[in-house]
């Protein structure tokens, strides 16, 4: 099966019906997308599927045929970071950072819909993403700076 | 050979050559490190002991080294420490203290951390010890290296004992303004010096790099998804492994049928006694093979959650007799509070579950990559499991997806090594979330019994018993006429271990709740009652700072609002948290409106990262305070998923304020634990203030509804 990830076409194997997460990590070596819970409860595995933040752990790879997927590896364009990455880096938000890729992709979709975001909009839009280091206040402050 | 080539070759070799186990002779050291200048430090110096033995050429054996810094002939500074990075951002703070003393930019310093072959032995990254122990060592080691460089420059220029200026990696000539780069001074030399403990270091009041909010040194790697956590790592010919789990801890295998798994193409089965595992080309195939295995287990009888506290009390040590002075003072006091506190097991839930990757080489070397707070502990576990000598086991610890005290062990690494040994190929074992919940360990549950008595003059009697959760934080910080404090060991139904701040969270919850209630009985303001009975000026200072920022003396905005406070001193950190809550008059729903925390841990090394540690502790603590609890029935963990075990999320974040008290005159201590201890009692006391309900259990309100009186 062919899938499009970060504007590149790949041929992948879908025997055994693997999740999109497994295909990204194990077949394409795109390990920026993380496993956190396996049941779409933590947001660590979120990628953009046609621009929509989607938990890749419960999404069968076969379901994304013909769709465009963006992972954390695809956000940087010609060496410049996406504004969401930029602000989170400048504000020095993360601790262990394992949640960062899922957080960033969720925030990318949010900021594409509306800028600037109110605190309430950030909290609502990001609530599906867990940061166990609990850097939530730092993430909220940083994202509210995007205009 | 050209000098440059030689250095390149040597630096390549240092990746593969083992540490000289015979002892750290000068010759061995530079054979291993490459030419240059280095300074090292031994643990026994720091610990004030005189146990150095087995020396060669006056240098200690490798195991006694605590750290070293090496300046290469090309000017690279490399710091070697056995401490590890699990998100507390010590890679950055330790780099800062070295940069400070060497007058170098942070970017020119590399830290090699937690690699058992390259770094000196370290017991582990826990107990808030990195900042108070390792940071001063590295500071002194870097200062020592700077002094060596100054001496070398004086010799080069044939100067006497003049004082020289250091700037951006160069030494400046006092008269002619010429400069010598560190690289020039190190070139062609093989200088190894033990650190002089009396070397002058830069006073924190003059810090320019330490003490500032230097961003996470490798932050870009994380934000772009490039950093490889162990769970992301791949080796040539690597296979994905899964291990068959019993239904409960302690179950024994009675019968096993692996026919279906064995018939699956590309699946390898491993069985060694009760250890059963599979490897395959990908996780999916391995998981399907595992699911096809039929196993029958014999389950040992186990205590269920509904009998937990009864069981802890029944199995506990009797302990020491309580003196009659303590009981008489209690009995005769004007005001008494006697109450029990129940604290449930909670899970660490590191967002990266345990992961291990193992490879056996043809020469018998076992390499294991695993996310652990104790790489040297895992090395010892591997030595024992496979009957190997230390030099045949190398453990690597890449910066890991958090621990919070929950990754002191090396289960996934050992499992990967077993599967790899049996199959002859590198194997990676990534635990699922369910495995992390069921097969790691928990923060201990505990039962606490308190009897306290007071009058207007102060605390007259204090009797405190902790069953099972631990003795950390058990000491009453207040003056009391008579005291009895005791931790009683008990039989824990579930596997338990370290957790951020250990038992301090439980003990300080009970202490600060009881102090609140005594203040109420005496008719004193809870803040004033505390101040009247405290002597510790550092604790008083954080209480006062938080009280002012919170507005303790302001009026409650509404009758359903409550104010509560708590304070504590843990491992050199001083913390006070003030909370404002409201209880909805009809639904009785609890809302945390505001949490203000003041924290002091000596001289601050990185204010931004310290603030993250403090707010992170408070918010993580909110989970254990309000809703986190492990549900178990005869050994089954029934909420082993993130959909059933609730952790704090964005929506749980109240208005937060963190006040950092910087004491440049005091040594820096750790901050990863202390700030977690006050949020629970502050909320508990605020609920009491609002509606007069005292909730003496953790978690307090899993459903978020405050009961009627």
From TrEMBL, chain A:
Q: Which InterPro entries match?
A: 2Fe-2S-bd (IPR002888), 2Fe-2S-bd_dom_sf (IPR036884), 2Fe-2S_ferredoxin-like_sf (IPR036010), 2Fe-2S_ferredoxin-type (IPR001041), 2Fe2S_fd_BS (IPR006058), Beta-grasp_dom_sf (IPR012675), Diverse_Oxidoreductases (IPR051452)
- One Gene Ontology term of the molecular function aspect: oxidoreductase activity
Matching SUPFAM superfamilies:
2Fe-2S ferredoxin-like (SSF54292), CO dehydrogenase ISP C-domain like (SSF47741)
Q: Which UniProt keywords apply?
A: 2Fe-2S, Iron, Iron-sulfur, Metal-binding, Oxidoreductase
| Residue intervals of the 2Fe-2S ferredoxin-type domain | 1-75
Signal sequence bounds: none
In Swiss-Prot or TrEMBL terms, this protein is called Carbon-monoxide dehydrogenase small subunit
Organism listed in the record: Cyclobacterium lianum
Automatic annotation (TrEMBL), chain B:
Q: Which residues form a coiled coil?
A: none
Provide any one GO MF term from the record. oxidoreductase activity
Q: Which InterPro entries match?
A: Ald_Oxase/Xan_DH_a/b (IPR000674), AldOxase/xan_DH_MoCoBD1 (IPR008274), AldOxase/xan_DH_MoCoBD2 (IPR046867), AldOxase/xan_DH_Mopterin-bd_sf (IPR037165), N-heterocyclic_Hydroxylase (IPR052516), OxRdtase_Mopterin-bd_su_IorB (IPR012368)
Limits of the Aldehyde oxidase/xanthine dehydrogenase a/b hammerhead domain:
224-301
Q: What top-level branch of life does the organism fall under?
A: Bacteria
Protein's name in the database: Isoquinoline 1-oxidoreductase
Q: Which organism is it from?
A: Cyclobacterium lianum
């Amino acid at each position: 099966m062919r899938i499009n990830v970060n504007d590149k076409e790949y041929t992948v194997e879908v025997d055994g019906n693997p999740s999109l997460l497994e295909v990204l990590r194990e077949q394409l070596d795109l390990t920026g997308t993380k496993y956190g819970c396996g049941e779409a409860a933590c947001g660590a595995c979120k990628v953009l599927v046609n621009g929509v933040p989607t938990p890749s752990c419960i999404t069968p790879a076969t379901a994304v045929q013909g769709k465009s997927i963006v992972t954390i590896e695809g956000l940087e364009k010609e060496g410049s970071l996406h504004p969401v990455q930029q602000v989170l880096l400048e504000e020095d938000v993360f601790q262990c950072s394992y949640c960062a890729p899922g957080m960033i992709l969720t925030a990318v979709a949010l900021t594409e819909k509306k800028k600037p975001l109110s605190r309430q909009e950030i909290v609502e839009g990001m609530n599906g993403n867990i940061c166990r280091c609990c850097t939530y206040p730092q993430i909220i402050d940083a994202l509210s700076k995007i205009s | 050979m050209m000098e440059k080539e030689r250095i390149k070759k040597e630096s390549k070799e240092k990746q593969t050559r083992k540490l000289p186990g015979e002892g750290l002779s000068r010759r061995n050291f530079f054979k291993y490190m490459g030419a240059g200048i280095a300074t090292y430090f031994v643990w026994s110096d720091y610990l004030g002991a005189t146990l150095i033995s087995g020396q060669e050429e006056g240098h200690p054996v490798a195991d006694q080294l605590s750290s070293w810094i090496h300046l290469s002939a090309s000017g690279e500074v490399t710091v070697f420490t056995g401490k590890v990075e699990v998100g507390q951002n010590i890679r950055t703070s330790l780099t800062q203290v070295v940069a400070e003393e060497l007058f170098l930019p942070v970017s020119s310093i590399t830290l090699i951390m937690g690699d058992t072959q390259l770094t000196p032995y370290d017991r582990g990254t826990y107990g808030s010890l990195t900042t108070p122990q390792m940071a001063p060592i590295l500071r002194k080691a870097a200062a020592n290296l700077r002094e060596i460089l100054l001496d070398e420059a004086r010799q080069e220029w044939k100067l006497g004992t003049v004082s020289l200026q250091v700037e951006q990696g160069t030494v400046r000539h006092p008269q002619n303004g010429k400069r010598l780069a560190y690289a020039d001074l190190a070139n062609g030399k093989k200088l190894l010096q033990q650190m002089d403990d009396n070397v002058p270091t830069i006073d924190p009041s003059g810090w320019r790099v330490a003490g500032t909010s230097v961003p996470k040194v490798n932050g870009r790697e994380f934000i772009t998804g490039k950093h490889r956590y162990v769970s992301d790592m791949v080796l040539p010919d690597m296979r994905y492994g899964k291990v068959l789990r019993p239904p409960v801890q302690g179950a024994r295998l009675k019968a096993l049928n692996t026919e279906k798994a064995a018939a699956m193409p590309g699946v390898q089965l491993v069985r060694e006694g009760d250890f059963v595992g599979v490897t395959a080309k990908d996780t999916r195939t391995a998981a399907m093979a595992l699911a096809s295995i039929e196993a029958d287990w014999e389950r040992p009888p186990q205590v269920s959650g509904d009998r937990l506290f009864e069981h802890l009390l029944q199995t506990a040590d009797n302990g020491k007799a309580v003196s009659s002075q303590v009981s008489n003072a209690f009995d005769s006091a004007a005001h008494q509070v006697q109450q029990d506190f129940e604290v449930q097991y909670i899970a660490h839930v590191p967002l990266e579950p345990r992961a291990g990757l193992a490879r056996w080489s043809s020469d018998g070397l076992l390499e294991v990559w695993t996310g652990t707070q104790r790489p040297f502990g895992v090395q010892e576990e591997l030595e024992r499991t496979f009957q190997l000598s230390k030099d045949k086991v190398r453990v690597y610890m890449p910066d890991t997806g958090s621990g919070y005290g929950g990754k002191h062990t090396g289960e996934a690494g050992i499992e990967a090594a077993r599967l790899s040994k049996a199959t002859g190929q590198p194997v990676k074992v990534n635990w699922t979330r369910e495995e992390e919940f069921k097969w790691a360990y928990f923060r201990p549950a505990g039962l606490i019994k308190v009897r306290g008595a007071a009058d207007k003059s102060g605390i007259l009697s204090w009797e405190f018993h902790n069953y099972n959760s631990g003795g950390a934080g058990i000491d009453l910080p207040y003056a009391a006429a008579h005291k009895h404090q005791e931790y009683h060991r008990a039989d824990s139904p579930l596997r338990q271990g370290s957790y951020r701040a250990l038992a301090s969270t439980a003990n300080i919850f009970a202490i600060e709740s009881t102090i609140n209630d005594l203040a109420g009985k005496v008719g004193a303001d809870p803040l004033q009652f505390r101040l009247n009975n405290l002597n510790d000026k550092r604790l008083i200072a954080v209480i006062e700072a938080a009280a002012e920022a919170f507005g303790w003396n302001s009026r409650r905005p509404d009758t359903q609002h409550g104010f509560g406070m708590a304070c504590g001193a843990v491992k050199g950190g001083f913390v006070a948290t003030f909370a404002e809550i409201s209880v909805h008059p009809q639904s009785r729903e609890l809302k945390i409106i505001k949490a203000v925390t003041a924290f002091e841990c000596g001289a601050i090394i990185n204010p931004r990262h310290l603030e993250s540690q403090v707010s992170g502790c408070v918010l993580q603590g909110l989970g254990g305070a309000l809703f986190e609890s492990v549900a178990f029935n005869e050994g089954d963990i029934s909420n082993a998923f993130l959909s059933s075990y609730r952790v704090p999320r964005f929506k749980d974040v109240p208005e937060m304020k963190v006040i950092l008290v910087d004491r440049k005159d005091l040594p820096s201590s750790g901050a990863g634990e202390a700030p977690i201890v006050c949020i629970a009692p502050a909320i508990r006391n605020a609920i009491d203030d609002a509606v007069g309900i005292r909730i003496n259990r953790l978690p307090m309100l899993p459903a978020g509804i405050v009961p009627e009186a």
